[in-house]
Design a protein that fits this description.
With 95 residues, the protein is mainly α. Helices cover 28% and strands 6% of the residues. The chain has helices at 13-18, 26-42, 87-90; strands at 3-5, 8-10. Strands 1-2 form a two-stranded antiparallel sheet. The longest helix has 17 residues, at 26-42. The two termini are 33 Å apart. The model has no long low-confidence stretch (mean pLDDT 77).
């Protein structure tokens, strides 16, 4: 059964295949991870950090059932942030 969390739909690989979506094979996942590992070795560790930005573009949960300020969600439909949610982003949702 698809799970809907914060405006996103999560499917198991079997559910994704049943809907006609392409699912990566373990070999394809391993190849992608190897490419990221190779990139990680060659990137410049002294490069400046990305410019921070805020608002709705900085957090996927803004405007969802996890955002206490989002319109359109009755109190009984609102959800609490997961305990492992990053503390930096958690502060913007404190009531």
């Amino acid at each position: 059964m698809p799970e809907h969390i914060a405006g996103k739909t999560f499917l198991t690989p079997e559910e994704a295949r049943a809907t006609g979506r392409r699912v990566l094979t373990p070999e394809e996942i391993a190849e992608a991870n190897a490419k990221f590992d190779e990139w990680e070795k060659t990137r410049n560790p002294d490069a400046p950090a990305p410019v921070p930005f805020g608002g709705r573009f900085s957090d996927d949960l803004v405007g969802t059932e996890y955002d206490p300020e989002a319109p359109g969600y009755p109190d009984h439909m609102r959800k609490e942030l997961p305990p492992d949610y990053p503390e930096v982003q958690r502060k913007q949702f404190e009531r």
